[in-house]
Amino acid sequence: MAKRAVPEINAGSMADIAFLLLIFFLVTTTMNTDFGITRILPPPVKNKNATVDVKDRNVMKILINSHDLLLVNGKPGNLNTLAQDVVKFMTPHPNDSRYPEVKEEYFPQLGKKVMMTKGIVSLKNDRGTSYKMYIEVQNELAKAFDILKNQESIKYFGLPYKDLVGKKKKALINKLVPIRISEAEPENVGGGK
Amino acid sequence: MAKFKTSKKEESQSINTASLPDIIFMLLFFFMVTVHMRESTMLVKVTLPEASEVQKLEKKSLVSYIYIGEPVNTAKYGDNPRIQLNDAFATVADIPQFVARERQARPEAERSMLTFALKVDQNTKMGVVSDVKQELRKSNALKINYSTRKVTHTNY
User: What distance in Å separates residue B87's CA from the closest CA in chain A?
Assistant: First the structure.
């Protein structure tokens, strides 16, 4: 029997295939970054008995009970409209007693005084509230403050907040729209763990 | 007299690239392995909640993770939510020490920028999360991040 020559496989493109795989892995693994809602916790209280007096009209009270139901300013709330309600509440309304008080603040970067609301969003949850619901509410609050920031950003720079270039402009908007969320210590009404 | 054929044409020597794929494969395997090794072994089950208004966690070296969820091995550890720090179960009382250790591991100039990312299962009750938050407050670790999955719109 005649010896048949074994045909050689051309391995020239093997390196290219391996490169392709390598680049694929490099790209997909860096894309797997962590996302989340960043919040700054209030510093620890030194004097536990010291209470801060805040006028009732300046506070928007959001309560979440252990059955994941919302109570906004004493009325049952709806998650779908929460962001809009917060935007309405935090937009300065001078001379309207249904909305929080306003104060004028001078901004050297703008060269003029700007109406700032004194409103605070107070978020209180039960120990039995599920984390999912809590994040959904936090998400709605984040959405509301994003809307407010975009409004100010478009008013002064004509661009949405995320398209702003430069740290100074972003810092100014952050100063104009401070994230005023107060988190009360949770209660154990529902008897959760 | 041409007994010996002398080839006058000199071909340029080509480099043997037969081992190139091997080198690349080695690199590929290196990346595949190291990428998986970085995550600490999960002792708790964590399904992150969904949110749309999220920020990216910027500097990964300045993030410490706190996992809270139901233990993977429910037969051994029960199904109450537990806290995992690094590779071991922990209690709320261990958090100040954990914060101090994480701070120690960072260069001094960057310590103030340390973020604590809470990777909490969506079915966990807020009680344990609040305890952790209070403990973080007491240890002056105020920058926290609620880790979520990113969705373009929430479905409700």
Answer: 19
